[in-house]
Write a structure and sequence with these properties.
The protein has 296 residues and is of the alpha/beta class. It folds into 3 domains: 125 residues, Rossmann fold (3-Layer(aba) Sandwich); 93 residues, no CATH class; 57 residues, no CATH class. The chain has a 6-stranded parallel β-sheet, with helices on both faces. Strand 5, helix 6 and strand 6 form a beta-alpha-beta unit. Helix 5 runs parallel beside helix 6. It is globular. It starts with a strand and ends with a strand.
Length: 296
Amino acid sequence: MKPVTAILIGAGDRGKDALASYALKHPEEIKFVAVAEPDDKKREQFIKAHDIPEEMAFTTWEDLLAKPKLADAALICTLDNIHYEPAKLALEKDYHILLEKPLSNNVKECVLLGELAKKYSHKVFSVCHVLRFTKFFSKLKELLDSKVIGDIVTINHNEYVGRIHQSHSFVRGNWGNSKRESPMILQKCCHDMDILLWLVGNNCKKISSFGSLDYFKEKSAPEGSPDRCIEGCPAGDTCPYNAVKIYLGDNVEWPTSVISADTSYEARKKALEEGPYGRCVFKCDNDVVDHQVVNM
């Protein structure tokens, strides 16, 4: 059977490594023929790995989607606030769509994308809510729908964010500030919201939420700590969030792969000296919660 052809919009960690890497393992199933990525290093790495001609590599999604339809499907893996426009245009150009979660961090855009999905219902329009496709949740859904367990009265669902993941993504990284990107409850927990609504098979009627940012603030910084870990922190040996230990060790996979497309020691060191991931985790511009309770 002829493999599905695809274009990739956004060749960052999620697009390049988490999703498109499947094509390298299963070339008989899917083949990438074009990419749009503003970072030169990431774009070059992708076209080399997937044997894409230079003329099919674009700096912006606008340039890529200005071309006539190039493939069967479009994978859209841009940052959350750049989901709507490329998804809309790709649908109008008759691509099947796989869109990274969340759908959008704008309510109006979510509604409009839902309407577009209905309008172009002959095409696949799928959001990466991957939990629905795991064996565990698929079986749980089957049991609930068959009433083997009985009627659902209460669900107690906990989302534990790992220590490194919290500091990397939601303090130092893209999602540490809700004015810059999606808040924690949307970016991290849209999976949880989706799976709960799917399992229950009904809509939420009332919701309340309580949470705050308590720990990852300057009041928690070790005495004498500099603005950047690499400048030499008196608590560096014991601090679990020491950027030097996290990013300058032997691991060059996630999360280290995010701080620099070039994973050489020199490039990673420069990223810690100049970029957001080298900052003291207690001295960032983060404003998202580090604990939250939601009642639905």
